[in-house]
Amino acid sequence: MITFICYPKCSTCKKAEKFLKDNSVSYETRHIKENCPTKEELGSFVKLSNLNVDKFFNTSGLVYRSLGLKDKINNMSYDEKLELLASNGMLIKRPILVTDKDVLVGFNESKWKNII
User: Fold this and answer.
1) Per-residue pLDDT tens digits for 29-65
2) Residue 95 gets which letter from DSSP?
3) Which domain CATH number covers 51?
4) What pTM, to 2 d.p., does this model score?
5) Which pairing describes strands 2-6 and 96-98: parallel, antiparallel, or unpaired?
6) Three-state DSSP class for residue 72
7) Exposure on the CB side of residue 58, measured as CA atoms within 13 A
């Protein structure tokens, strides 16, 4: 099963969802703000994605900027970063595409084509 974790008002999420529909991909939608991934889920997403946990932060988001995370993130531990991400879905870069074997963060059409 593919899970599409998104924020419905996000233009990138809308583009990604259109891509999934246009390619007849069966998926389950999860609203990132109403059903934020847990610390444990985020830890598994980081492992499956082979990305640094920092790549999961929505660095252009209002919450990220209002918390001044640009200056704080380098001094945080891995666990602290996961806890922070799990505390507010708006801190997480989106959309996230989760399969049994892979996790993609953000929408990159060519990478998504390889997964589906």
Assistant:
1) 999 999 999 999 999 999 999 999 999 999 999 999 9
2) -
3) 3.40.30.10
4) 0.93
5) antiparallel
6) helix
7) 26
Helix (H) or strand (E) holding 6: strand 2-6
Work out how many domains the chain is built from and give that number. Answer: 1
Please say whether the beta carbons of 30 and 5 come within 8 A. Answer: yes
**Residues 2-18: tens digit of each pLDDT:** 999 999 999 999 999 99
Could you identify the residue written with the tokens 């997964």? Answer: 115
User: Which domain, by its residues, includes 73?
Assistant: 2-115
For 5, 66, 114, the CA distances from 42, given in Å and listed in that order, are: 12, 22, 22
CA distance 91 to 7: 11
Looking up tokens 């985020």 gives 42
